[in-house]
Amino acid sequence: MTRADTDSLTGFWRSLPEELKVKLRLGFTGKGHLLDVADWCLRSGAAALVPVAADALHNVVREHPLDGGVARELLASGPARPLLTPETLDRLNALAVHWRRPDDLEAFLHLLAGREYSEISRFLRQAVAEQPDNLFWREQAMMVGSVEGDSVFVSEVLDFDTVSGVEKVIYPAKSVAKTYFSPKADPNVGQLLATLRQRPWDVSLALRAHDLFKGVAKARQPVPGSAAILLYSWNKADELDATLASLLASDLGDASVFVLDNGSTDCTGEVLAGWESRFADQWGAGRFTVVTLPVNIGAAPARNWLLHMDAVRTHEFVCYLDDDVELPEDWFLLLGAAVAEYPDAGVWGCKVVDHSNPLLIQNADTHLLAGPGSPTDLARMAPNPFKLSDLHIQTLDSGLFDFLRPCASVTGCCHLFRTETLLDSGDFAIQLSPSQYDDMEHDLRLCEAGLFPVYQGHLTIRHKKRTGAASRTSMQEEGNALGNKYKMQTMHDPAAIKAAMLAEQQFLEADLLAKLDYLDTL
Fold first, then answer.
1. What is the average pLDDT across 71-87?
2. DSSP 3-state of 408
3. What's residue 371's pLDDT?
């Protein structure tokens, strides 16, 4: 595969159609996204875009080595098939022959809905043993095992005896599993740049290369001003206890901590009393404050309550933290480095992964995209024609989101604001409580004001969540979340959202061009 005939990374990028650049700016990973990129390039009929389409298709095959559905789709596609190498076609043919979706999946789907991993893995072991020539079951086992972070189970099902001719399919699957389950190492920066010059459309690669060469990935800076770290909690004493332990072990400079007990009825009060003493012993008096409310007022009101405390508003920065996160020691310095790199951002956030399995990215950089439907179509659960990108949930974490750049929204699990910006932009929307959409809605306000969030992907925090039966939500809770998503979208004028989308694309373009210009000097 060769790149287009251009003299620089910047020159190649400028030569691309804007409609394609909107897609590529999101990154170069995720099955659905890459298939969309390939489809657009092929439908354009532009010969210069054939290498982009081919690379997107090869990435899909590489990231999903046991996906028989994709294999059959690509083999049946007249435009796509010629872009695949003979070796890839041989492997896809073997996969298509030995991948069969069973007619009756009711029992398996029932187990998946129950989310009991031990039962699911037992079922899959038996299915692989009974149908060793059907790679459908190994695909399901690899996906489930990867989601659960069970490398032993994945190795077991991939190593199970199989029929002749399937080794060529199993081998790349083992390679992918090894990549995911092995500790992440710093890439060879020289090799990274050489690869980028052959694949200048790969924005994920470009962003990583820039940050590694320029030293952004290793940068640590104190937050440039006084800071208040704010937490609120309701009946999660154990999780809060662990979060405060990692907070005390962090390098926070002279930051102060404020914790709101949101009407807890468990032992949260006792936990906080113990931490008051420990923080005072290590930091001195006055830097750890507990606020106790008699009732649970909800997440958004709790955020607002903390912000409007006189002792909080005197600080130049405020940082909200969830009460169930595990923090690396240098997390606050990484946010400080993001402030130093993008001082005019509306908010700075980070990458959030699942605590029990950090391969699963819960939140990364998300971007405003046009969505289907009409703003007056009240029958849809998306009354405004916009959505946020979701590449991070289309794949597992292999380092492709380890970069620093602007975006449209960052997670509320850990985000840093200038206090003045936060006060000027208004309170978190209490009509969206209880749900996670109050922080997203606030980010949309910042976007509309031209104060775009910045994603610090070199900071990863682990977010705890209930598993198994305890993770299930009721129909009432799911309905409430959907209702709040609907309300969030109706709170924003379509023209304002459209203007913010355009402004974000212009910001992303300028940011990327500056980074490509830098890489072209190397």
1. 95
2. coil
3. 64
